[in-house]
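Need a sequence for this fold. Nothing fancy.
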C-alpha cells in the first residue's frame, strides 16, 4: 500500500466518531504506528510514557462506558491508551545513563571527554534535581531558589510537581500525534479522547495511582457519517504571529 505524504496524512486525519464495523484493521499495522509514536521527541529523552494497545473486544466493551459511551469508543475496533509515567523517572534516567555507558566504553588511563561528563552529569545530577520531590515541598524550595537566581540570569523555571506533570503530558501528546498521523498515512482513522473516567480506566488496565492517562485514541476505518462536518479552525492569520 502506498503511504500518504506527511501533508496528505495531516489533511486526511480527522477525529472520527463512527467506525465501519465491516472494515477491520490490522493490529500489527496499528502496533507499528504506536512504535512510530514512540519516536516522537521527548523532554530530556526521558520517555516517561507507556502505550496500552487494547485489541480485545471484551476489554473495548468495558472501556466504552468509561469513555461515557462516546460513539468514538463504542464503535472502535481498537483503542490505544497513552499513559504518562512520571513516576518512572529514576528508571528512565538510569536507562539513559546505561546507554551513555555504551557510547563511551571505559578506557583505562584516559580521561572522559567533556561531552561524556556533561551527559553523565545531566542524568545523574540535573535530572534528579529537576524530578526529585517530596510531597511537593522540594519543588517549591527549588522554585523559590530559582525566583531569586532568576532575577539576575535566565533560569529553567518548570521544576514544581505540577510543572513536571505538564512536561510529561506534552511529551505524551506528541507521541499521540505521531501515532495519529502514522495511522492517517496508511488510511486508518483515529479519535483522541480525554473524555473518560481516568481513575476507572487506570483500575481496568491495572495501572498504579502514580500513572496518569494522557489520552485514549480510538481506532478504525471511518464511516462517511463518522466525520462530523467540515473541519473548523480559527482563521490562521488570527493565530499566526510573525515576529
Ligand atoms: C486532548 C484532546 C482531547 C479530545 N477529547 C475528545 C473527546 O473526548 N471526544 C471527542 O469526540 N473528541 C475529542 N477530541 C477531538 C477534538 O474534538 C477534535 O480534534 C477537534 O474538534 C478538531 O477536529 P479534527 O480533529 O477533526 O480536526 C479531543 C482532542 C484532543 C486533542
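Here you go.
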Amino acid at each position: 500500500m502506498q503511504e500518504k505524504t506527511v501533508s496528505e496524512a495531516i489533511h486526511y486525519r480527522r477525529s472520527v466518531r463512527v467506525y465501519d464495523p465491516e472494515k477491520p484493521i490490522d493490529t500489527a499495522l496499528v502496533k507499528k504506528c504506536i512504535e512510530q509514536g514512540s519516536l516522537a521527541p521527548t523532554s530530556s529523552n526521558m520517555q516517561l510514557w507507556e502505550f496500552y494497545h487494547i485489541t480485545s473486544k471484551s476489554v473495548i466493551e468495558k472501556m466504552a462506558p468509561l469513555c461515557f459511551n462516546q460513539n468514538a469508543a463504542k464503535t472502535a475496533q481498537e483503542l490505544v491508551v497513552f499513559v504518562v509515567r512520571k513516576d518512572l523517572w529514576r528508571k528512565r534516567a538510569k536507562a539513559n545513563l546505561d546507554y551513555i555507558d555504551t557510547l563511551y566504553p571505559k578506557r583505562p588511563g584516559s580521561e572522559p571527554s567533556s561531552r561524556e561528563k556533561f551527559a553523565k552529569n545531566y542524568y545523574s545530577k540535573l535530572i534528579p534535581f529537576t524530578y526529585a520531590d517530596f510531597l511537593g515541598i522540594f519543588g517549591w524550595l527549588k522554585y523559590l531558589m530559582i525566583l531569586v537566581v532568576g532575577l539576575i540570569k535566565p533560569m529553567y523555571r518548570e521544576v514544581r510537581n505540577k510543572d513536571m506533570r505538564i512536561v510529561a503530558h506534552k511529551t505524551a501528546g506528541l507521541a499521540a500525534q505521531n501515532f495519529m498521523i502514522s495511522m492517517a498515512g496508511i488510511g486508518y482513522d483515529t479519535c483522541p479522547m480525554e473524555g473518560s473516567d481516568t481513575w476507572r480506566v487506570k483500575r481496568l488496565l491495572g495501572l498504579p495511582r502514580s500513572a496518569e492517562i494522557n489520552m485514549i485514541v480510538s481506532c478504525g476505518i471511518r464511516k462517511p457519517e463518522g466525520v462530523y462536518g467540515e473541519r473548523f479552525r480559527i482563521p490562521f492569520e488570527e493565530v499566526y504571529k510573525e515576529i
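For context: The chain is about 45% helix and 10% strand.
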